[in-house]
Amino acid sequence: MSIFWILIFFELISIEVRSYETTNVKLNPHPTPDQLAWLEQSDIGFLIHYNMATYIPVEYDGCNRVPSLVPDINLFYPDTVDTDNWVQTFVDTGAKYAILVAKHNCGFATWPTNVHFQLTTNETISYNYSVTYSPVSDTDYVDHFVDSCNQAGIKTGVYYSTIWNNWLNVRDARVQPGPLAPGQMPITQETYESIVLQQLEELWSNYGPLLEIWFDGGYSQSLKAGIS
Is-annotated flag, keyword Hydrolase (predicted)? Predict the structure, then answer.
C-alpha cells in the first residue's frame, strides 16, 4: 500500500521568503492583511505530499539530502490511488481546502506536462521525468485530485517547488556547475526558468480555478516578474 504524508493546517500561517541574490539580508516576514483574511476563512486544510518521494527511503527527505539522487521513474507505480477517499477524509475533518504536491524536489511531475526544452547539447527533449513516462502513464493525478475536491466542494491548490529539482541539477534556484549525476539533464539557467514558468502556466490554466500555488521556499528574484 502506498504511504503518503498528510499535514493538517489549523489557524496558523508560515511564510518563508528567500532572495537567493541577497543572502546576507535577514528577513522577518509577516502575513499581509489579505493573507490573514484568507486564513480566517479557510480554517482547516490538508497538504497531500504524494509524489516520487513516497517511494524512496524516508532518510532521503524527499531528495533534499541527496542532491544527486534521481529516483528511477519506474518506482512510481502505485497499485491504488483513491482521491475520492482522500477527499472524504477532508470532508469528515471539516476541511475547506486541500493542496496536492504537483512537483517536489526530485523533479518528478505528477501531471502530464507538455513542456519541451533544449539541452546544452542542443538536443530538444520533452520533460520526460513525469507521470506520462512512468508505469502509470495514462493517469493525471492532479486532474483526479482536483476533480474529487470539486465534487465535494473542497477548494484546491497545488504545491510546486521552484528552488530545487534534482533531475535538472537545480539547488537554491540555480542550475549547478560541474559534472552531472546519473539521470540528470544538462541545461542552462535560462532554460530552467522557462521550464518553471511554462509548468506553472499549465497548472494554473488547466486545473483552475485554483485557490493557490504554494511555492515552498519561495522563488528567485529572476522568476518574480514572470510569476507575478
Answer: yes
Would you say domain 5-227 falls under CATH 3.20.20.80? yes
Q: Report DSSP letters for the chain, one per residue.
A: ----EEEEE-S--------TT-TT--------HHHHHHHHHH-SEEEEE-SGGGGS-GGGTTTTT-TT----GGG---S---HHHHHHHHHHHT--EEEEEEE-TT--BSS----EEE-TTS-EEE--SBGGGSTTTT--HHHHHHHHHHHHT-EEEEEE-SS-BGGGTEETTEEPPSPPPTT-----HHHHHHHHHHHHHHHHHHS-S-SEEE-TT---HHHHHHH-
pLDDT band at 15 (very low <50, low <70, confident <90, very high): very low
Is the per-residue pLDDT at 18 higher than 50?
A: no
Task: Break the chain into its structural domains and give their ranges.
Answer: 5-227
